[in-house]
Amino acid sequence: MRVQVKLYSIFRLPIQNYDAQRGIEVELPPESRLTDLFDQLKIEMRKISMVRINGNLSRDYCYILKDGDMVELFPLFGGG
Fold it and tell me: Which CATH topology does 2-75 take?
């Protein structure tokens, strides 16, 4: 199963030649959950502030991904 993933801010840094317009395509086994995607990308859940799946905000990290889903991951933001 393949999902399209868009990463924002510091999540992009470890991925060489990241294309901000397209994101990246990630291959996962069928029935993979959102947490499996985080593991594959080596992104800690505690560092994620927001997840959108196919344009909709999701707080269900146990969501079972479907082939062709678009996942957007936003890191925690800080400032002062």
Answer: Ubiquitin-like (UB roll) (3.10.20)
Between 16 and 69, whose confidence is greater?
69
How far is it, in rounded angstroms, from Cα 18 to Cα 39?
18
Query: Can you give the pTM of this predicted structure?
Result: 0.91
Nearest to 70 by CA among 18, 35, 25: 25
CA dist., res. 51 & res. 63, Å (int): 11
CB atoms within 10 A of CB 3: 21
Asked if residue 80 has pLDDT above 90, the reply is no
DSSP track, the chain? -EEEEEE-GGGGTTSTT-BTTTBEEEE--TT-BHHHHHHHHT--GGGEEEEEETTEEE--TTPBP-TT-EEEEEE-----
